[in-house]
Amino acid sequence: IEGVKSIEPEKIFTLQSEESVPNDPLYPYQWNYPMIQMPQAWTIAKGSSTVVIAVIDSGTRLDHPDLQNRFLPGYDAFNDDTDPSDNAPEGKSSHGTHVTGTIASLTNNNEGVSGMIWDDYSVILSVKVFEWVKTDDNDWKSTTTESIVAKGIYYAVDHGAKIINMSLAGPDSPVVAAAVQYASENEVLMIAASGNHYSSSPYYPASYEEVISVGAVDGSLGRANYSNYGPYLDLVAPGGSAPSQILSTGYSSNEGNTYSAMYGTSMAAPHVTGLAALLMAEGYAGRDSSGEEIIRKILRETALDLGDPGWDQYYGYGLIKAFDALNFNEERRPLLVQILSTSGQVLKEAEVEADGS
Questions:
Q1: Is 139 a residue of the active site?
Q2: Positive or negative CA dihedral for 125, 130, 134, 140?
Q3: pTM > 0.85: yes or no
Q4: pLDDT, tens digit, for every residue of 91-142?
Q5: For 316-336, what is the mean pLDDT?
Q6: Cβ atoms within 10 A of the Cβ of 82, count?
Q7: How many other C-beta atoms can be found within 10 angstroms of the C-beta atom of residue 285?
Q8: Which of 86, 266, 271, 324 is an active site residue?
Q9: DSSP 3-state assignment of 241?
Q10: Residue among 57, 66, 120, 324 flagged as catalytic
Q11: DSSP letter string over 55-87?
């Protein structure tokens, strides 16, 4: 045919990004994970049984079907017992169960929602520091004190936690500051919510230097209008808003174990905690030659810059990006198990294998 040089079959071209998408039926409603590159990140890392994460919160539901086999023996610092169950009363949602689900809801199990840690390791140390109490107007309120929060931090450190999530905020406290210092001295990575007061005033423990302070963005990547900002802010993560909330595991006494939608910097912090756990499982731990925590540096260097160029008071260094963080060129170090004498001398040391042995 005139003007035709050759004829051949039409070939198909495809985009070359790999994704790992869970089969959990509610995963399509978890808009927060694609925002931080989790489908791509899961092709690299899915967690490890060697990284213990303490969730210092209102407790959780140990019997939730989408959190089974996730828990190590926990602690109720408020009542000083070994049952960290959150018995959220009718009309109230379990804050701690929601936070825990973002980090560790069973993923790819054909049930409910997905968590950031994929494989079903027992890695969550639930530390309850809040209790439900009746108010003068006959409502329920979840409350705690600085000494109970501090007790929860000490417990987490002394029982093997390498990462602590604190989706809570309050005033500066010498008691809590001392506990945070203790955790830092023991090389425990701490992550906390910046607060929901639309304020540049410092809230703690997020504003302590040793803690990674996390603010919130909504479903359109804008700063959530409640999210605290200011000089102490490090990073932002999906926290949601009233129209686009974060879906996770939930509980209330009238509904039982269920799934709930919530928003706040409390919801943003566990995204950073989950990513930190994936990084630590891949061997990123400790401090670099300058003394900076390696995971903190990776999160800072790979964050998506939002707002003014560089660090700014509304977004910190930006939005965490999981795939980019897991591809960061940084020295990896094996996780170690050490047997110490009472004087602190290392008697034996062994590297932890990828399967946790």
A1: no
A2: negative
A3: yes
A4: 899 999 999 999 999 999 999 999 999 978 899 999 999 999 999 888 999 9
A5: 87
A6: 9
A7: 21
A8: 266
A9: coil
A10: 57
A11: EEES-B-TT-GGGTT-B---EETTTTBS--B--
